[in-house]
């Protein structure tokens, strides 16, 4: 079977032409980057884990009425998604002070915020994804006010749901990144959730020990990245009992042709 035409390659995923109009195949890589790709490396099996975790989360979000680009998982590293026009804004939802928020405002990392904060960043690697305000979005036409209202509403719903989902398995949802896209129905555009939700774009801390179970282990040279991602998948019930390595799972499924 010949490989489908590549549409786009990002830092963590590759998009290929889908089998039907309006669809794409999203392939999850093991590549890891940090600090706007200034630091690069590989987390063995990350693509397999992120595919499974993102599939699980997007499926659950669909059951509570959050519209997403996810259609179905195709295999261990690929999923079928709706093709969207990506809105060039990264939406960051923060529940606990960490990362750039702590550095910008001098708030000790781990401080519970009095209320959830939603921040917007302009998607441009060359500029370092700068923090932007609603006025910038309106001025440059990156999204309409109606679209931003929908995005904010969905971000709050996703946060409420994920906080409960992770708390139930002993994980504190510190913050996370969302991306949204437009799908066109005749002349009408609708905003839906796109990209992925995985330990690549979330800060996930063990509620008891505060151990980091996300890409901060790579950013900060803490080691144990693959084990941390596996732990998240295991707690979500996505790794079979007794499965020690997601690579073993990947290779086992590959032999079976799945």
From TrEMBL:
Enzyme class: ligase
InterPro entries: SAICAR_synt/ADE2_N, SAICAR_synt_PurC, SAICAR_synth, SAICAR_synthetase, SAICAR_synthetase_CS
Keyword Signal tagged: no
Catalytic activity annotation: 5-amino-1-(5-phospho-D-ribosyl)imidazole-4-carboxylate + L-aspartate + ATP = (2S)-2-[5-amino-1-(5-phospho-beta-D-ribosyl)imidazole-4-carboxamido]succinate + ADP + phosphate + 2 H(+)
Pathway named in the protein's UniProt entry: Purine metabolism; IMP biosynthesis via de novo pathway; 5-amino-1-(5-phospho-D-ribosyl)imidazole-4-carboxamide from 5-amino-1-(5-phospho-D-ribosyl)imidazole-4-carboxylate: step 1/2
Boundaries of every SAICAR synthetase/ADE2 N-terminal domain copy: 6-235
Keyword Nucleotide-binding in record: yes
GO MF annotation list: ATP binding; phosphoribosylaminoimidazolesuccinocarboxamide synthase activity
GO BP term, pick one: 'de novo' IMP biosynthetic process
Entry keyword set: ATP-binding, Ligase, Nucleotide-binding, Purine biosynthesis
One of the Pfam families matching this protein, by short name: SAICAR_synt
GO cellular component: cytosol
EC code: 6.3.2.6
Family membership noted in the UniProt record: Belongs to the SAICAR synthetase family.
Name by which UniProt lists this protein: Phosphoribosylaminoimidazole-succinocarboxamide synthase
Originating organism: Sphingomonas parva
Organism ancestry: Bacteria, Pseudomonadati, Pseudomonadota, Alphaproteobacteria, Sphingomonadales
